[in-house]
Amino acid sequence: MPIDIKIKKGLTLKLKGEAENSIEQAQKSKTVALRPSNFHSLVPKMVLKEGAKLKAGDEVFFSKYSDKTRVVSPVSGTLKEIKRGAKRKILSVIIEADDELSYKDFGVMDPLKSNSSEVKDRIFSSGLGVFLNQRPYNIPADAEDTPKAIYISAYDTAPLSADYEFILKDKAEFFQNGINALTKLTGGKVYLGVDKQSASFLKDIENVELITVSGPHPAGNVGTLIHETEPMNRGERVWTINPEDVAIIGEQFKTGKYNAERTVVVTGTAAKHRKYFKTIIGAEVSSILKDQEDNSRIISGNVLTGEKIEEDGYINFFSNTLTVIPEGNEYRMFGWLPFKDNDIHSASKTSLSWLFPNKKYEVNTNLNGEERALVVTGEMEEVMPLDILPMQLIKACMAGDIEKMENLGIYEVVPEDFALVEYTNTSKIEAQAIIRNGLDIMITEVG
Amino acid sequence: MNWIRQKIDQIKEPFEPGNKLEKYRPAINALDTFLFVPDHTTKKGAHIRDAVDLKRTMITVVLALIPALIFGMWNGGYQHYVQLGVEPTFLEAFLHGAYKIVPMIVVSYAVGLGLEFAFAIMRGHEVNEGYLVTGLLIPMIMPIDIPLWMVALSVIFAVLIGKEAFGGTGMNILNPALTARAFAFFAYPTYMSGNKIWVSEASTVDTISGETILGSLAANKEVGYNTAEMFTGVIPGSIAETSTLCIAVGALLLVLTKVGSWRIILSGILGAAAMGLLLNALPSMGVEGNGLTNFPWYNHLVVGGFAFGIVFMATDPVSAAQTMKGKWIYGALIGLTAILIRTLNPAYPEGIMLSILLLNVFAPTIDHYVIEGNIKKRKKRLETKSVKTA
């Protein structure tokens, strides 16, 4: 029997600009980028120098603090450039891809027939370990830990997000194999969250504890799944991983090749061709997005948690969504009047938008106001399904009060759990950045 | 619209960073943002944001206050003419009230916003919109004949001591508007209580007493109004507190827009009703009580400042309890203590002001216990977990 989770608090934003359910091979990305900033708190040590030749699966850099946290190249080719910023901090590593990819051979391994340490060693030594993220703190998993459970959410409830069933349907075999490998990493369970409404193959995946999820966003967030099943306590470790990355692990075990294929969905009203594209991890944005509208913002990820990237930039390592929406750098006369501009969504009832629950909105990046002191109370709780006092936790993070943060449940959350709080907030405070900052304080003070 | 925008950008030019009037930017920005929602786009975190902002929220409260304010102006004039034995037309009554009240509002806004702007410039932050509500509330809870200099002094006290001393908007412990009223009440008691101040220019009339219902009850006099009159509010009292009907209209707007906490309003009413019922039952328990304790409980809900206080003052999110459970407790305690103070305090026959201020002080304590509850749950989970694994 699957575990059933039904969320009541939250908010599903219905936005225009959905992608059609069709998939196409993207134009080959001439270069790919690996950006250390995609792996929070990772300080890279380079293995290769500029000009080095490498195969797909060759190590490019590793973490200064743990040489088992390795990032490997998604393509074969030449290490073209190591871009550095202030204090020679490595910003990105650009690899020029060969026309025909060649792969490093890791050998075939059947995870079910291997023991835990063999599987773990294989995953971390071949650079698959960076797909695993650790809770608390949302940082790369530490190879020395044994997590109490591993969570995978194959149901993304965020606005305009990718449909994992659609992405995974051709990779079911690899996905299952990846799951088999993951079960060897934990003493506990491997949880898989799926959409309760759909009747897909994901419900037949074996060796997992199935969670059927229903309710508004953030029902599908990993944080919600963890909170409803095995909430985090002090000192505990849980790992999370994205579904498509599970399939990459499964394929690598089955074929010995690191095939860093990434299915990216292009969404948002300012994007012209809205559908799924097959490309490679860290691909050039320009290899996928063609002639989007002027004065628009490209987001690697969804509108709530994604990262703003430039037209000539690269997709985030973990991201499988490119959202393009118009910039909102326009003035609105008397826009602050209640019940005016009802075409802009509001979770509060000071706009009449609540009268049309099924309306889809065209959104832009306007802040719709200015940052103010925290005045309004009660609105954060409406979009916070976790048993967390959001405002009190935010204040504890702002104050850097370690004991209070711990008491109020900082270990149970990551920034994305506060994305809706940030979206609906009247005072326009940057909740995700505040939580991230709080987590960083905990990393240095508690570890 | 574009040319207005261009004109404003032109005016703002010298205030831009690097130019000589840079430090006055918060002031000019505050004025500008009243015309236009700025073109600021999201820089960090969520790329899209809700349409609501603090300005919209505060304006909603101001809108909710309008019915009570309009009624207050009319009633101020009406009570004035009636004591003279004249039956005024609607316009006459309204104009007399407006003549008294509009200058108070002007003084309140001018002094208060002046201070707010000064602090924003001094501290280099944008002007918060909270005073839009406070500035209107202050005159609305004053007696109609209060001298303007007293309004100004109360405003200065409320903004400086009640708010800015604690760090400005969002940080204050006490409701600023009630701080203003409490200041006026304790600093100038002769202007703020008694039976000659509640009706405009009553002191110039010898024969007729314009005291409030609660005042007459405290003096063990008969009340010449029925419940319907008390509800509609054609009675003497502070400017906007009299009409429970108009306040209810405002409350409806606050609750429907979720700007005001229905939890506080509802639990406050329930608390007051409970205390009223208890006091009404005193005679059956062999205690004699007084005119106020024997006043029917439902009348307690519609006279005096209770309705206005519970709807517009107790729901101030900054000074109220901030947790959901805390709001229930906070509201209920306000209701209970308001009626208790009102009936059993011989010095002053109204309790809502003091009860809200009292609970403002205790709100952080209420929250503390609610938060402790959440913390304990988490600690217990950890304990049971470690017991299991041990």
From TrEMBL, chain A:
InterPro entries: NqrA (IPR008703), NQRA_2nd (IPR056148), NqrA_C_domain (IPR022615), NQRA_N (IPR056147). It comes from the Bacteria. Keywords: Ion transport, NAD, Sodium, Sodium transport, Translocase, Transport, Ubiquinone. It holds the Pfam family NQRA_2nd. The keyword Translocase applies. GO terms for molecular function: oxidoreductase activity, acting on NAD(P)H, quinone or similar compound as acceptor. Residues 264-310 form the Na(+)-translocating NADH-quinone reductase subunit A C-terminal domain. Residues 5-98 form the NqrA N-terminal barrel-sandwich hybrid domain. Residues 116-257 form the NqrA second alpha/beta domain. One of its GO terms (biological process) is sodium ion transport. It catalyses: a ubiquinone + n Na(+)(in) + NADH + H(+) = a ubiquinol + n Na(+)(out) + NAD(+). It is an enzyme of class 7 (translocase). The keyword Nucleotide-binding does not apply. Its EC number is 7.2.1.1. HAMAP family: NqrA (MF_00425). Belongs to the NqrA family. This is Na(+)-translocating NADH-quinone reductase subunit A. It comes from Psychroflexus aurantiacus. The gene is nqrA.
TrEMBL record, chain B:
It is found in: Cell membrane. One of its GO terms (biological process) is sodium ion transport. The modification FMN phosphoryl threonine is found at T212. Its cofactor is FMN. The chain crosses the membrane at residues 58-77, 97-119, 131-161, 234-257, 264-285, 297-315, 327-345, 351-371. It is a multi-pass membrane protein. Its main location: membrane. PANTHER family: ELECTRON TRANSPORT COMPLEX PROTEIN RNFD, NA(+)-TRANSLOCATING NADH-QUINONE REDUCTASE SUBUNIT B. Composed of six subunits; NqrA, NqrB, NqrC, NqrD, NqrE and NqrF. This is Na(+)-translocating NADH-quinone reductase subunit B. It is an enzyme of class 7 (translocase). GO terms for molecular function: FMN binding; oxidoreductase activity, acting on NAD(P)H, quinone or similar compound as acceptor. NQR complex catalyzes the reduction of ubiquinone-1 to ubiquinol by two successive reactions, coupled with the transport of Na(+) ions from the cytoplasm to the periplasm. NqrA to NqrE are probably involved in the second step, the conversion of ubisemiquinone to ubiquinol. Keywords: Cell inner membrane, Cell membrane, Flavoprotein, FMN, Ion transport, Membrane, NAD, Phosphoprotein, Sodium, Sodium transport, Translocase, Transmembrane, Transmembrane helix, Transport, Ubiquinone. It catalyses: a ubiquinone + n Na(+)(in) + NADH + H(+) = a ubiquinol + n Na(+)(out) + NAD(+). GO terms for cellular component: plasma membrane. Its EC number is 7.2.1.1. Belongs to the NqrB/RnfD family.
